[in-house]
Specification:
The chain is of the alpha/beta class and 294 residues long. It is 18% helix and 27% strand. It is built from 5 helices and 16 strands. The strands form 5 sheets. A 7-stranded mixed beta sheet has the order 4-3-5-6-16-15-12, covered by helices on one side. Strands 8-13-14 form a 3-stranded antiparallel beta sheet, with no helix packed on it. It has a two-stranded antiparallel sheet with strand order 1-2. Helix 2 links the parallel strand 3 and strand 4. It starts with 7 loop residues before the first strand and ends in a 16-residue tail after the last helix.
Amino acid sequence: GVSVNGELIISLGGRSDRLKSLNEQDLTNLLMRLMRTSQRSVTALTGHGEGDFARQGGKDLSDLAKKLSNKGFQLDVLNFASGDDIDPNESALIISAPTVALLPGEVKRVQRHLDNGLNMLWLVDHNSTGGLDQIADYLGIKLPEGIVIDPSARVQRLPASFALAQSYGDHAITKPMSVNTVFPYSRGILDKGSGSFSFTPLVEVAPDGWIETGGVKNATYDEARDIKGPAIIAAALEREIGEKRQRVVVVGSGRVFSNEYLASLGNADLVSNIVNWISGDDSLISIEPKIRMD
């Protein structure tokens, strides 16, 4: 029964949960927990300087972890050095901008899991791919060096090295998005048109900008060296593997969903949609509240 004054008990499909505060965000989170037909697990790779679910630093993911936990996700971590592993059929993997390159054997383990149908969110740092160039090739994408320069960001009083997304691709992840998102220090993602994955742009930015390869201080476009915009900085990849529809999202910013930037504009909504999608919960994407209360 009710244990706190003002508490509500909400039941759905034979399951129930307690709502202790009456606001839209908490109600939405509770409904998401009840609507998930099975336990969903999200695992973060660690051991290479990645953003961490537990730490409170600016580049870490503790705010994201709290958000996902509130929505009913079980959170785990994976460190290959400890002998841990991941079941591709039980959990999606987040690789959040490793700053130290994975060992060749670790890269092979990631690829083996992808061979077995692993769903994944890969946040790529602007300075390093973390030794995962082989995985980019496997996915059929290219990650050119350089940082996206977006002159439109200055309208929001942001540095030009912050890409401002004002419109989105035609995809289940981005269809509900009605607010801008901001991507600090992002790099472009190119479709090589090879491999077995389909490629759908989610976020394209900087129509009047470029990918700067010579450093962002006093950046100016160099036709011989830089890549003219617009630039795709987030993409969804899919393929059929056995009886499973495998899903991977690659985002060309290692900081966009970090503690420092998660609450910026619509960033929290976008990552919620991404994680719901790679977890196979498409029907829960559209019930995010329009205004976040957290």
